[in-house]
Amino acid sequence: MALLKWPSWPNYGDEEEEAVLRVIRSGQLFAAGDKSGLFPAGEVSQFENEFSEYLGVKHSLGVGNATEGLHLVLAALGIGIGHEVIVTPYTHISTASSILMQNAVPIFADCERETLALCSKSIEKNITEHTRAISVVSVFGYPANMNEIVRIAEKYDLDLIEDASHAHGGIFEGKRIGTFGRVAVFSLHQAKAISSGDGGVISTNDSELATKIYRLRSFGDAELSYNYRMTEFSAALARVGLTKLDSQNDIRISNAEQLATILSNSGQILVRKPIENSKGVYHSVLMELTDCAKINLDELIEKANARGLPLKRTWAPLHRHAHFNPIEAPARGLPWCNPLYSGLYKDLSGYRTLKLPVIENMCDHRLLELLVNPPVGSIEIDQAGKIILDILGE
Ligand SMILES: Cc1ncc(COP(=O)(O)O)c(C=O)c1O
Fold it and tell me: When you count CB atoms within 10 A of the terminal residue's CB, does the N or C end of the chain come out lower?
């Protein structure tokens, strides 16, 4: 049988080429700031305005990547030594490692079975006098249950940070992902739905916070500041990506729905659906092996890959990662041991003994992902569905 050829992402074309040339011709490749306001003219400031309009927020600030954005946000919120941030263990490393970069302590709570995002009950159990913020991710473009998380953040007066790196264009109950918290960060990395090589954008309605982020971003504050600027190239590409976002999300959604239909009669696997009243944007389609599956994850992946279908496991939960084992791989500054910190993880054993049964079970035994970015379309999805059913013997 011929090997399936799965189309890759991104697909830059004439518009992207023109955007990059426009920057070169302008002679201004980095976003130069001035004292009066945010970056004047240029691609970065235009992208910021366009992204704010799309999201319906007051301020957007371009950064070099989302990792820088997450760090900048924590710094601007004044989160540091002695503080805890409750964060999902089911995410990319930088959602949590950025907390260590500020010498604060990440506290991993369990996830909700339905959304795979932070579970509000588990968040609440982990709140202490040291807690300053909650960092939530709408993973793989499946919206988190934002009502519940916002309720907890408000109840305990905590800052809510949305890492919306997978959810450009996602909606929960009529409101865009990235507009629920005090501040949100989006990745514009090459693999993301707005693909700019490396890039990121921070969005907020809080003008004071935006000003602080603006100053910290480019050596403009009395406090320790950074060079976390977005380049003009990256912004020029992101501007093109933004114009295509909704139509490309429609293709991802249609691909996911088609695969769900094909697999709907399987007794062994299902395509995960976004929570009710939400629009998921499928950074990846997540599939789940059911209790009756006669095959394990690795066997299914191996057999699918051998036929050219790029199924893969998703993340391993972060509380098992070496960065969060302070004895094996101590983070610089050892925030757990600082005399100003007296919280849950003071004895350094916290992450090793932590049990997060929902997300551990899902990651270890059930979840796999498939990228369905355009130009993947109905022909490829049909082939993918057939290969999966064939491997499952259905
Ligand atoms: C959920 C999430 N947050 C943050 C990041 C970091 O993004 P960047 O590569 O732009 O730093 C990623 C990257 O994959 C991610 O998936």
Answer: N
Strand order in the sheet with 171-172: 175-176, 171-172, 278-279
Strand arrangement of the beta sheet that strand 269-271 belongs to: 269-271, 285-289, 367-370, 312-313
**How far does residue 188's CA lie from ligand 1's centre (Å)?**
8
CA of residue 393 to ligand 1 center, whole Å:
36
Could you tell me the pTM of the whole model? 0.97
- Closest residue by Cα to atom 16, ligand 1, is 92
Residue-wise DSSP of 148-211: HHHHHHHHTT-EEEEE-TT-TT-EETTEETTSSSSEEEEE--TTSSS--SS-EEEEES-HHHHH
| Tokens linked to 376 | 């993947």
For residue 35, the CA-to-ligand 1 centroid distance in Å is 30
Give the C-alpha separation, 375 to 248, whole Å.
9
User: CA-CA distance, 167 to 146, in Å (whole number)?
Assistant: 13
Give bridge partners of residue 369 from the DSSP assignment: 286, 312
Would you tell me which CATH number, out of the four given (3.40.50.300, 3.90.1150.30, 2.60.40.3880, 3.40.640.10), belongs to the domain 14-240? 3.40.640.10
Q: Where are the domains of the chain?
A: 14-240
In short, whether 249's Cβ falls inside 6 Å of ligand 1 is no
**Is the Cβ atom of 189 under 6 angstroms away from ligand 1?**
yes
Q: Which atom of ligand 1 is nearest to the CA of 91?
A: 1
Using DSSP, state whether 270 is helix, strand or coil.
strand
C-alpha 370 – ligand 1 centre gap (Å)? 18
**Confidence category of residue 350, pLDDT binned at 50, 70, 90:** confident
Dist. CA 241 → ligand 1 center (Å): 17
183-206: pLDDT as tens digits:
999 999 999 999 999 999 999 999
91 within ligand 1 shell (Cβ under 6 A): yes
**Is any ligand 1 atom within 6 A of the Cβ of residue 184?**
no
Instruction: Decide if 166 contacts 137 (C-beta within 8 A).
Output: yes
Task: Tell me, in angstroms, the distance from the centre of ligand 1 to residue 306's CA.
Answer: 28
